[in-house]
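Appendix B, record 7
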Amino acid sequence: MNDNALPGERLERLTDGHAQKGIWASFLGARIEEERRGALAASGDGWWEPSDPDAARYGVAAGGRVIASVLTGRGREADEEVTFHMLRNQPSRTLDDLDAKEDLLDLLGQVPDGPLAERLLGIVKKFAAPFPDHPDHPEKP
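Structure tokens (predicted):
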């Protein structure tokens, strides 16, 4: 975390439940906003759907055009699986997921320190798990 704390001070704060909740909530909140910007940029094409499987370019279509071709090199079945994976992660669904994560952060901030707060913090850490190399990650030395 880029807060000019000395390493020993930072480690002390990470052991304090209330401070730890705030640090992790701030970190995940910032990642949510980064992902939201990407999802909003991608949502300009509208609702995503599979393109015509017999078209020259198969993949994800929106607004009557293919916006992402899928060619795995592993055959049609793999191409279709990847296409539907992309469809399950389209912008509107991603935005709903991000809203739910923000609700979790709000709840974490309202719950007093204790077993429930520890459980919620564990869930927040799981949502932060995809960002271990981020320079602001709370567990970076």
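Remarks on this record: Residues 17-42 form the longest helix (26 residues). Confidence is low (pLDDT under 50) at residues 1-14.
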